[in-house]
Amino acid sequence: MARKQGSHSEITGPRVLEAALRLIARHGYAAVSMRQIAAEVGVQAGALYNYTPDKQSLLFDLMRHHMVELLDALAEADLTGDALSRLKGFTQFHIRFHLPRSDQVFVSYMELRNLVPQNFTAIETMRREYEDALENILRAGEAEGVFAVPDTRVATMALIAMLTGLSHWYREGGRLAMPVIEQIYWDLVRKSVAV
Amino acid sequence: MARKQGSHSEITGPRVLEAALRLIARHGYAAVSMRQIAAEVGVQAGALYNYTPDKQSLLFDLMRHHMVELLDALAEADLTGDALSRLKGFTQFHIRFHLPRSDQVFVSYMELRNLVPQNFTAIETMRREYEDALENILRAGEAEGVFAVPDTRVATMALIAMLTGLSHWYREGGRLAMPVIEQIYWDLVRKSVAV
DNA sequence: GTCTATAATAGGATAGAC
DNA sequence: GTCTATCCTATTATAGAC
Fold first, then answer.
1. Contact A169 B157 (CB under 8 A)
2. Contact assignment for A193 to B194 by CB distance below 8 Å
3. Strand C nucleotides below 7 A of a protein CB?
4. Structural domain boundaries enclosing B122
5. Which of B33, B36, B192 to mutate to test the interface with A (most CBs of A within 10 A)?
6. A161 touches chain B (CB under 8 A)
7. Which pTM does this prediction carry?
8. Domain ends where: A52, A77, A94?
9. How many domains does chain B have?
10. How confident is the model at residue A8 (pLDDT cuts 50, 70, 90)?
11. What Cα–Cα distance (Å) separates residue B153 from each residue in B6, B42, B145?
């Protein structure tokens, strides 16, 4: 607490991103100052520039890290089998990945407009890749004859919005436990695309 | 264009709110300055304070107006009949009300965290009233035995998230016309709560 | 690697002339 | 009702000492 000088690059670096994530999720990118982030980390504002060239890069790093982690985890989930199994797997994956990451979800969905064009495009490309994973499952189900979806693209957007919305209102320790909520959402998803 | 002086209270007042809505929807509350809003209206920053006591009131007025308009329109929609008809009516109402108001939807969903506590509570109360209208329909359908919803509250949040998500990606003149999209969403909603 | 100090700019809000 | 001018505060980012 009393130490004011010293080198902590391996500690401070991640702490800057953590503090930025927490503060931006709570107050929004434009509303959070570099001084606030520095105070949260326990350094002076100037020290932040050892870890990020500017505020924009901080936001972009947060969002890129979230999307890379998401796509990596999806690849590892290795959803195989018939379309219904894959849809159930995707639904569970989406909920289990996003629910413990409410700050990341908040930032990734709210702060897109604060990315400069180049960074925006990079994030959108990754997001599109994730959406396509779900759409491919819906297409497969159509081909198998187990899903009846008038338009797979619209259904994809609708289902992702429904699932992601969960992150906006779910609070740990609430009325319903996580497995129960997961079951309820799977029930809604399954029926919505059923024949 | 050349006139720099004069009284236009009845013109300028609404124009301030319109400009604020457009700019805040695009860039976010914290990122938009009073000077930007004034420039959009075509006055100097100081003149704005004839129409709003401060920036916070501007945001609150935008969100309150949106919610009041929503609840009034819902009351006029007068959804009656059996639960399935009411659900279809609600779905159509939600889409038709929100789709032409993408700026309002954006602001109302993104800027809640920038409201001071008192204003936040006021908006949340109105939002809850709207959600309850849908939940009542789902309850009625359960009672009639035409819906099978494990938890009406969770289903309410899920369906509203799905429907509102439409406002985030729909663009006029896109691949699908509005009535088509409306039909697709109704199909998803109807099946998701079906027995 | 972090500090202090500061440059350069922009912010919300107000006062007083017209 | 609007303007100009200004107060006061806060901002991002940089420079140089330690």
1. yes
2. no
3. 1-5, 10-16, 18
4. 55-192
5. B192
6. yes
7. 0.94
8. A52
9. 2
10. confident
11. 53, 46, 17
Helix axis angle for A102-110 and A55-77, nearest 10°, is 120
Domain of B127, CATH number, reads 1.10.357.10
CA-based nearest distance A1→chain B, Å: 31
Q: Do A47 and A104 share a domain, yes or no?
A: no
| pLDDT tens per residue, range B28-65 | 999 999 999 999 999 999 999 999 999 999 999 999 99
Residues A171, A150 within the same domain: yes
Residue A99 DSSP code: G
- Cβ atoms of B123 and B112 within 8 Å: the answer is yes
From A107's Cα to the closest Cα of chain B, the distance in A is 11
A86 shares its domain with A98? yes
Helices (H), A78-151: 83-98, 102-110, 117-144
Do the Cβ atoms of A176 and B154 come within 8 Å?
yes
